Amino acid sequence: MTNELTKPEIDAPEGPAPADLEVVDLVVGDGAEAQPGATVKIHYMGVEFDSGEEFDSSWSRGEPIEFPLPRLIPGWQRGVPGMKVGGRRKLVVPPSLAYGPAGAGHRLSGQTLIFVIDLLGTR
């Protein structure tokens, strides 16, 4: 199966940031399902909830990345399993499941983050 998805556009959210992880399937894939602890190959884009500013994107680098879920932020560890290859999923990740509260030492600490993730492979 070829993945025809292109770089996503993330609309500015309305209202307050959610307190809990939000997981929304934008496209349901029909391939293998990502399991907890899997290594995933993905394309993704991340923006800050408050500003809508992109802070990271594999699309902008022109190639997908592959890594084990246990090395990622908790929001991804909870939000990616169950996703199927070929799918696109949006995660809205509160600070507690991202980079911690403001002042925790990461430039995104205290931020609610929005990610759009395309699952290209899992093992």
UniProtKB/TrEMBL annotation:
<dbReference type="InterPro" id="IPR001179">
    <property type="entry name" value="PPIase_FKBP_dom"/>
</dbReference>
<keyword id="KW-0413">Isomerase</keyword>
<feature type="domain" description="PPIase FKBP-type">
    <location>
        <begin position="37"/>
        <end position="123"/>
    </location>
</feature>
<keyword id="KW-0697">Rotamase</keyword>
<comment type="similarity">
    <text>Belongs to the FKBP-type PPIase family.</text>
</comment>
<dbReference type="InterPro" id="IPR046357">
    <property type="entry name" value="PPIase_dom_sf"/>
</dbReference>
<protein>
    <recommendedName>
        <fullName>Peptidyl-prolyl cis-trans isomerase</fullName>
        <ecNumber>5.2.1.8</ecNumber>
    </recommendedName>
</protein>
<dbReference type="Pfam" id="PF00254">
    <property type="entry name" value="FKBP_C"/>
</dbReference>
<dbReference type="GO" id="GO:0016853">
    <property type="term" value="F:isomerase activity"/>
</dbReference>
